[in-house]
Amino acid sequence: MNEFASVLDDEAVAVARVLANDHVADVVEALNREPRETAIELLCAVPFERLVEIFDQPELESAPELAAALPRAKAGKLLTAMSVDRAADILRELDEPARSELLGALAPPLRATLLSILGYPEGSAASIMTTEFVSVPSDWTVGRTLDYIRKVERTRETVYAIYITDKDTQLLLRATGLRRLITGEPQDSILSVADRMPVTVTPLTDRETLAQTISKYDLLALPVVDHGKILGIVTIDDIIDTMVEETTEDVHRFGGMEALDEPYMKMGFLAMIQKRAGWLCALFLSEMLTANAMQSYEGELEKAIVLTLFIPLIMSSGGNSGSQATSLVIRALALREIGLRDWWRVALRELPTGLVLGSILGIVGICRIALWQYFGFYDYGSHWMLIAATVGAALVGIVTFGSLSGSMLPFALKRIGFDPASASAPFVATLVDVTGLVIYFSVALVILRGTLL
Amino acid sequence: MNEFASVLDDEAVAVARVLANDHVADVVEALNREPRETAIELLCAVPFERLVEIFDQPELESAPELAAALPRAKAGKLLTAMSVDRAADILRELDEPARSELLGALAPPLRATLLSILGYPEGSAASIMTTEFVSVPSDWTVGRTLDYIRKVERTRETVYAIYITDKDTQLLLRATGLRRLITGEPQDSILSVADRMPVTVTPLTDRETLAQTISKYDLLALPVVDHGKILGIVTIDDIIDTMVEETTEDVHRFGGMEALDEPYMKMGFLAMIQKRAGWLCALFLSEMLTANAMQSYEGELEKAIVLTLFIPLIMSSGGNSGSQATSLVIRALALREIGLRDWWRVALRELPTGLVLGSILGIVGICRIALWQYFGFYDYGSHWMLIAATVGAALVGIVTFGSLSGSMLPFALKRIGFDPASASAPFVATLVDVTGLVIYFSVALVILRGTLL
Question: pLDDT digit of tens for each residue in chain A (453 aa)?
Fold first, then answer.
């Protein structure tokens, strides 16, 4: 221990103290702050039971790398002792050959269970479920079930949800809760305290639906059922972790980039560039169409250079109103307040909304030009009223177009099979920019023909 | 019942069937789809116990209005029978005089409890807690506690978390879970199956911290403690509802508007305009600075109209990179991966990231101009190489500035006491636009001096 302490700095010694005494969630937080080498050294010095607790926390960063760095035998014991769903998470993120080596160190039944969980696509119910749940045959009594739960309590992720299977077919029949169980008489059948058939999900149910189902029915666990047989359960704490991850992904994507799968400060520099450059280039290439649009109006630009002054102002208003509409529709779709077939209802709402918002901005814009002209801050020339009218009318058109297309984009993406949350604010802005320019110059051609143009 | 059925259409009859038989969560969903008048008629016909179940669902829309529309005596009985936290929610959203009238119909002790909950600010732990939890004095045995739980089970929101208070001072001492309790011997002291002092929150803890605490420590309930006394508990299902709401608010705000507090399709038209027009006007007014910036470069614009062609392209790139950086920092702050004092670390990351991303876009931009010139799509004049260099260099500067200011904006907002999530994509874009123009024209002045300018 002396030798061990000597290689660590003061901070690490403090961490070692935390490791031994604090709540495991705080231990994990402390470990996450350490460089990986120090974390591994610390973990090697921790008692085995504590090690299991630490690795059972999904908040532990780089858990796969840490597990792989442990001596092989210890890592095998660790995977066996920890909860099955976390063990599967760790193996899923591990590269070969470390993954196969670790799997080889496990007992065949556990290996088979883990391999079957790993076979399901990431994010599906089966991929995050645990197989450590309580299920009892339908001919047991309340007393026998309670005795059984007392015995297995330590090895089950939750004992609050109890599943009752048919004693012959082993198909899932009913569910009950520990709170109902303790109110029953010991000699009564377990079915006497059971609720109706529980709400279930299939192995391929996606995590968004899982979160919605568990929150809608106020459940602590959700059984994953295939052909009537219960394969495992997804517990509410996994759902919460999932929801936090999902929110992060949504915000990143709405910001116009690929979602990061690691914490911001731990992400490698090149990986970060990769996640951001793709969308940035795609948006840049699309936005190049604005240069083409401007080129085709070059004649007008030369005649009325005053028009260029308002280009950024007008284009950004279209993007802003579009971004508002998109964020509204993304959330309404995610919360299932609206479905794909409601697109026309949304369009009918956004059309008048856009017209009113555009009119408000248009009036503000006209006032701005009139004020500057009146107080002599800037001279827009003798046709300043026509220019103000052009700006005002263009704003009505562009904000309406922005609201409409911003609200329709998530529908369009969903329709062609993409996640509607990929409709980012920059995406909408880019979509609106080119059309915005065309609207602006078309309005200018109509209003200013014969005077400036 | 005949008379009642005659005023309802076929769909409502189907709903009435659902009301009687389906899972309460599905009943609520069906009711939410009905117009308010129909919903009230249906609720009047429902057995009282079912009515309580329905109103206990936070998913029931317009619950306060529905409760106020019930006969006063029935509404009073309803509020008494339902869970205290939901009753407080309903009263909080009710306007006067309906609120005082309903409170008047309640028994004095319940009224006092509700008034004390209502006295706490919205969103605080005390405002969403329930006072229906299980707590027992420290001198009880395991058996006595179990008997007590069996008796009160039906009136408690959760019995899975059990709080042990000092038998004399009534201060919170320890916590345990029902799963530990059933493993104990009936004659043993309750303290023999208790864990250490539980993680607690104060009455004023905000809901974001609640969600983080409950998810970090994997709890089913979190006790709200004031001066050592336990006032109530916040349960995990309330937290999930809170998290969903919070995500919606974050997405709305990131889209550049005030968060909606009602579903998109149910929001009144004027209320919707209000929520959107404020930010839209604020952004519009700020963006007007671009017109001022353009005015001050009017001389350059007239000499080199070709420069205007790239204004939308260059400005949008700054906004896009800023939006990416903002979304990253907002989430990292929300997840506590970084704190306020880490701003310089983030700046040190965003500076090289912005330089690299800007260089990538700059090279793409230069290639675009060279290709168009080479293939004769457009003639940028004899100085096209200088123009390409201007665009390229401006992109490096603007994307770097965008990444930097986008990442610093959430810190700045947090520093002055605002929610960092108010840093919306349109906000960042507007911030970057004015500076972007200045950067572009400054670069142009340096590179093109003596040739075009």
Answer: 444 444 455 666 666 667 667 788 888 888 888 888 888 888 888 888 888 888 888 888 888 888 888 888 888 888 888 888 888 888 888 888 888 888 888 888 888 888 888 888 888 888 888 888 899 999 999 999 999 998 888 878 788 889 999 988 889 999 998 988 888 888 999 999 887 788 999 999 988 888 888 888 888 899 999 988 898 999 888 888 888 888 888 888 888 888 888 888 888 889 889 989 998 899 998 888 888 888 888 888 888 888 888 999 999 999 999 999 999 999 888 888 888 999 999 999 999 999 999 999 999 999 999 998 888 888 888 888 999 999 999 999 999 999 999 999 999 998 988 888 778 888 888 889 889 999 999 999 999 887 877
Cβ neighbours of residue B141 closer than 8 Å, sequence gap 6 or more = B186, B187, B188, B189, B190
CB A344 within 8 A of CB A385: no
**Bond preceding residue B97 cis, omega within 30 of 0:** yes
Instruction: Write out residues 299-358 of B within 8 Å (CB-CB) of A.
Output: 301-302, 305, 308-313, 315-317, 319-321, 323-332, 335, 337-338, 342, 345-346, 349, 352-353, 356-357
Measure CB to CB from residue B182 to each of A149, A252, A320 and give the nearest one: A149
The CA R_g of chain A, rounded to the nearest whole Å, is: 30
Contact predicate A409/A427, CB 8 Å = yes
Contact present, A233 and A220 (Cβ < 8 Å): no
**Secondary structure letter of residue B198 according to DSSP:** P
Q: Does A420 touch chain B (CB under 8 A)?
A: no
The answer to whether the beta carbons of residues A333 and B251 sit under 8 Å apart is no
* A153:B182 CB<8 A: yes
Cβ neighbours for B347, distance < 8 A, ≥ 6 positions apart? B404, B407, B408
* Percent of chain A as helix, strand, coil, to the nearest 5: 65, 10, 25
Dmax of chain A from CA atoms?
98
Nearest-Cα distance to chain B for A121, in Å, is: 25
A chain contacts of residue B207, beta-carbon cutoff 8 Å: none
Contacts of residue A233, defined as CB under 8 A and 6 or more positions apart, other chains included, come to A129, A130, A133, A157, A158, A161, A163, A221, A222, A223, A224
Q: Report residue B299 as tokens.
A: 């001389």
The DSSP string of B162-186 is: EEEE-TTT--EEEEEEHHHHTTS-T
Give strand pairing partners of B298.
none
In degrees and rounded to multiples of 5, residue B169 shows phi and psi of -85, -15
Considering just the CA atoms, what is the radius of gyration of chain B in Å? 30
What per-residue string of b and e applies to A104-126 under the rule 16 or more CB within 10 Å gives b?
ebbeeebbebbeebbebeebbbb
Nearest to B195 by CA among B216, B211, B179, B215: B179
Residue with tokens 């009753």: B87
Query: Peptide bond before A121: cis, by omega within 30 degrees of 0?
Result: no
Q: Are B199 and B212 in contact (CB under 8 A)?
A: no
- Over the stretch B40-53, which tens digit does the pLDDT of each residue have? 888 888 888 888 88
Sign of CA dihedral A167, A172, A174, A176: positive
For residue B302, the tally of other CB atoms under 10 A from its CB is 11
Cβ–Cβ contact A419 with B under 8 A? no
Q: Do the Cβ atoms of B420 and B410 come closer than 8 Å?
A: yes
Q: What is the pLDDT of residues B180-213, one digit of tens each?
A: 888 888 899 999 988 778 899 999 998 888 888 8
Check A284 against B364: CB less than 8 A apart: yes
Any idea what the Cα angle at residue A323 is, between residues B410 and A350, rounded to 5°?
145
What is the ipTM for the molecules in this complex? 0.77
